[in-house]
Structures are given as C-alpha cells and as structure tokens.
Design brief:
The protein is α/β, with parallel strands linked by helices. The protein has two domains: 2-181 and 245-328, TIM Barrel; 185-238, no CATH class. The protein contains 14 helices and nine strands. It has helices spanning 16-21, 27-36, 46-49, 58-71, 94-111, 126-136, 153-165, 185-193, 198-207, 214-223, 228-237, 248-254, 279-289, 309-328, and strands at residues 2-3, 6-11, 41-45, 74-79, 115-118, 139-144, 170-174, 261-265, 293-299. Helix 5 (94-111) runs parallel beside helix 6 and helix 10 (214-223) runs antiparallel to helix 11 (228-237). The longest helix is centred in the last third of the chain and has 20 residues, at 309-328. One of its GO terms (molecular function) is isomerase activity. Pfam families: AP_endonuc_2. This is Sugar phosphate isomerase/epimerase. It comes from Cellulomonas hominis.
C-alpha cells in the first residue's frame, strides 16, 4: 500500500517463528500472507530461505519467483550477510569480504531485486562495493542496526565516506530498532514467566542509563537477590534489546543517504500504539525530508517465541497508515 510518497512493504523475517516451528510452512505461505495483508513488495533473507547459501541454486531462485508471481508479490530487496568470522581463528580478508558482497549482489540481481541490504562492509571497501553494485544494477543499503545509534562516530564516518563517493548505488538502511526507548511488554512477560522478579526487572529498566555498564548492573541485581532469570534479562537489555533515549536528531543526518527503512517493531497494542519505539517522530522526520520510497515493516516477535506475526503486521501497517495519512494530509 502507498501513502503519499511512501510505500509499505514487509520483511519475510517476521515469519521466522512459524517457519521454524512448522514443517508445513514455507515461502509460498508467507507470500499468501503478504497478499492477504495487501502488500506487494517484500524483503527476502537468503540465509532464512535458501538451502544453498550464499549462492543459492538457480532452481531455488526460480521456485521463489514462481511462487511470488502466483501471489502477485515482488522481491524488492534481498537481505545478505558479510560473515567476517566464518572460519574460527581467521578474520576475513578484503578479498573474502568482497566475495560475499558479490555473491549477494548476484543473488539480488537474479531475484530481480532493486536493493541488497548488506551487513558491515568496511569503510575502506565502500567504493569498490559501489562499483560492483553499479555493475550488477543493484543498489546496496548498509543497515544501521542496534546497538549502534545514528550519532555514533563509526556511523557518521560511514556516512561521510558515502557522501564522498556519492553513488546512488550505495546508501543506508536505518533500522528502527536503534530507537527502542523501553523493552516490549512481551519481553518483560517472558522474563517474568522464567522466574524473574518484577521489582528487579523494574529496577533494571529504571536505572539502565544511570552509569552502570552490563557487569556493574549484573553485580547490582545479584546483590539484590537476582538469579539466572534476572541475569538473562540484564544481558538482553544491554544487548540486542538495548534501549534508551531515541537519537532522532542523529536519525535526520542519515536521511539523505537512505535507500529505504527497516521499520522494526516488537509489539503493537490493540489500540495501535507502539510503546517501545517513537514511530510518529521517526515518520515525521522521514516525511519532512521529502523521502520517496519503501517503509519496510520488520516484526521480531519471534524473539519472544510468539506466533502472532500476521496479527502484529496487520496492526503495524495500520499504525503506519494512520500516522502517515495525518502527516501527509
């Protein structure tokens, strides 16, 4: 669905829980769900979908494209990966990194995708990557992902180098997971179900940014009687579900180099609220920038072992539609 200058799309990653748990569920079922949600464009993650990765067999790609055509949906982006630690004790060389980038570009090209969402391509290889992307007519978007924040020095250095290269084949994919301001309620509920005490979870959330690092918070919670369940919560809240004041000002510095957006979310309430991420502030900045392109809903409720992707995606799409309609008149 398109609202003004912005078109909604969905990442197939949101269906991970069902894909893992049900042997009878596959890509064709995902495409059927996309169609039922009124979505045409999707992002496909190679390591999730293809048996042979990083270069899937032609038959695998054909099967995906045939299924997509049956359901009237289109791969607009391919999610690749640069595995710099594939071999234990060996850091990937520049040639090995470029081999991964090239493999992913070829797969994106074979899928007919406009974009490759890439991982951490080193700054020194950006110009070479842009040239390779132009050769294959696929645009690279390097994801800005939590726990990074847009204002971080390394992200700003990445942005500065992209500005120097100034290629339409090289840009960013800001992920809204960078802007989590508090944990999702399902995350809290899961820790409580595992035996964590509510008052200790509340303490971690309240004091997350009072100066303690993760080892310091672990020690503090242990001194208050916390055990294994609380230890897991602290680790999560300092790691992949880290949260804090949203760096919206830093976000605005990325917009001129953005290829599209990962509108990450963990939980939308029945009354269409996202208590974790300031979606309205982010969308307001996007609209003000004049951006024209894709806003990709990426559900990660499988982090809480929840099989509710369809319901949550439907809510999230409606939430975005409500906000964007208000912003764009």
């Amino acid at each position: 669905m398109k609202i003004g200058t912005i078109e909604q799309a969905i990442s197939l990653y949101g269906f991970s829980e069902r894909l893992v748990d049900r042997r009878d569920y596959g890509v064709d079922d995902m495409f059927a769900e996309l169609a039922s949600l009124g979505i045409q464009k999707f992002e496909l993650i190679g390591s999730q979908v293809f048996d042979q990765y990083p270069r899937p067999k032609a038959a695998e790609i054909s099967a995906v494209l045939d299924s997509a055509a049956r359901h009237g949906v289109t791969p607009f982006s391919y999610g690749g990966y640069t595995d710099v630690g594939r071999i234990t004790g060996h850091d990937a060389t520049d040639d090995e990194i470029m081999l991964d980038v090239t493999s992913d570009l070829l797969t994106a090209r074979d899928l007919g995708a406009t974009f490759l969402r890439a991982g951490a391509i080193p700054v020194r290889l950006l110009e070479q990557s842009a040239a390779m992307a132009e050769r294959h007519r696929v645009r690279i978007g390097i994801e800005v992902h939590a726990p990074s924040r847009p204002s971080d020095a390394n992200i700003q250095a990445l942005l500065a180098r992209m500005d120097e290269i100034d290629s339409p084949y090289l840009g960013l994919v800001p992920d809204f997971g960078c802007f989590i301001e508090r944990p999702a309620q399902p995350a809290i509920d899961r820790h409580l179900a595992n035996g964590a005490r509510q008052e200790l979870i509340d303490y971690v959330i309240e004091h997350r940014h009072d100066g303690l690092d993760e080892p310091g918070m672990q020690a503090q919670i242990a001194s208050m009687g916390g055990g294994v369940a609380e230890k897991a919560a602290v680790s999560e809240f300092f790691g992949f579900l880290s949260f804090g004041p949203a760096d919206v000002e830093g976000f605005t510095t990325l917009l001129h180099r953005t290829q599209y957006f990962h509108s990450k979310f963990y939980h939308v309430t029945e009354d269409l609220q996202d208590p974790q991420i300031p979606v309205e502030r982010l969308l307001e900045a996007i609209v003000k920038s004049g951006f024209e392109g894709i806003l990709l809903s990426e559900y990660e409720g499988h982090a809480f072992h929840l099989d509710d992707a369809h319901e949550q995606l439907e809510r999230h799409l409606r939430l975005e539609q409500k906000i964007l309609t208000g912003l764009q008149g």
